[in-house]
What does this fold into?
Amino acid sequence: MLPPADAPGIPPFGRPGYRILIVSDAWTPQVNGVVRTLATVSHELRAMGHAVEVIGPDRFRTLPCPTYPDIRLALRPGRRLAAMIAAFQPDALHIATEGPLGLAARRWARREGVAFTTAFHTRFAEYLRARTRIPLRPTYAWLRRFHGAACGTMVATESLRADLAARGFGHLRPWSRGVDLDLFRPDPREDWDLPRPVFLYVGRVAVEKNIGAFLDLDLPGSKVVVGDGPALAGLRRRYPGVRFTGKRQGAALAASYAGADAFVFPSRTDTFGLVLLEALACGTPVAAFPVSGPRDVLAGAHGTVGALNEDLRAAALAALGADRAACRAYAERFSWRACAETFLEYLVPAAA
It folds into this structure.
């Protein structure tokens, strides 16, 4: 184990060779922003000389998440998870999510007197309300208790930090995101073979993503949806004039972004929106509501690389006039290495 955090002359994790354990209910084969963030940060940390282990639901017996069967939740993971943690002997423990694995890791850490950090990746209260109509207040009270035991909670944007602080959360740490600039590039571009302009959505196809707000817009040209999820079949039936491609990854996904004339992001509940950076890296301007996530990602560049407006149609049409070269240049400001270094800075020694 590491020396205590206040040991003289030894900054926590300031040199390579530490053992970092991440526990997350969101992990492969799921495809979402949380998984991409954790996988990429883990890769960067290993490149910096650290041993990184991610424990996800893929190592346990699972059951489908209610209302979202594509997501699998670990079934009674406590005892096995405790054995995995003991076997790895982490110098630092990070609990990424508030699901069964996150809860089990939190219980273990508190029982063993181990310090840990958490992250607020998902507006779980808003998602739960959208699916079940459970009010926000009791869910946020539970989330506040969950994260309150951590030495620090990492949040993706300043507006999210301010919102959580107003709700009584403490020890909040700003932790931005990055984008793979080698994969997401302005070329090659998907032709689409559709009337132009092409307005694109990429992401999970689920009720909380508010995709209908995009598909209902009266826009010229064509609309394309790239992604999979529980709402896909219903949206296909409801919008027969929209091109639904299903899930795309890697070069095919990058070409999808690059081949669009504008990227429309209708979500009001995302904590960041990695897809915004991916679109910009491909030279595609973005249109979104002026809410937490898009407002932070486009801070200082609104009107140059896209448009934010409560009238999403107006934002989509305004985005068509953005400079595609400026979009790429703006995305180049976001580095995954910097994201990993910030994550490392916020970790606490398990023995603290």
In short: The longest strand covers residues 68-74.
